[in-house]
Write a structure and sequence with these properties.
With 138 residues, the chain is mainly alpha-helical. The chain has 6 helices and 2 strands.
């Protein structure tokens, strides 16, 4: 059963900042230890909240042309290891880099108009292609 989703409070954010700053003094942050200090939050909740919302210096919004160039260089160097790419980007996190690359920058994206001839004649249903296939006319 899924947990009920709830917004983070300013008190939880303060606890998160304190726990992470203490954790950083002894090396990489142990997110299980951080979560143990914040009732009702998992290690994943804490890690994502920190990296994508609370951590200082993460830029949100429109990408600049310079950031796009920097992203291309970082992907050329690290491939799609987004945490490594994000370190090169300085003010963008791995999820932002991945989304920007896969949705906009990747030169292998086919941007031509879609035509029915480009579609496969079979449509696979389920997680395993080929498990169930139906023919699409055309």
């Amino acid at each position: 059963m899924a947990r009920e989703r709830r917004n983070w409070t300013s008190g939880e954010d303060a606890l998160l900042k304190k726990a992470v700053s203490q954790g950083l003094k002894s090396g990489p942050v142990n997110w299980h230890n951080v979560a143990a200090l914040i009732s009702g939050r998992t290690n994943k909740d804490c890690r994502k909240r920190w990296h994508y919302t609370v951590a200082a210096g993460v830029t949100k919004g429109t990408w600049t042309a310079e950031e796009d160039k920097q992203l291309c260089l970082a992907v050329e160097k690290h491939g799609t290891k987004w945490s490594h790419v994000a370190l090169e980007m300085e003010k963008r996190n791995g999820d932002q880099c991945s989304k920007r690359w896969n949705d906009t920058i990747d030169p292998t994206i086919d941007r031509s108009a879609w035509t029915p001839g480009k579609a496969s004649r079979s449509y696979y249903i389920g997680m395993q292609p080929g498990l169930i296939a139906i023919d699409i006319p055309g």
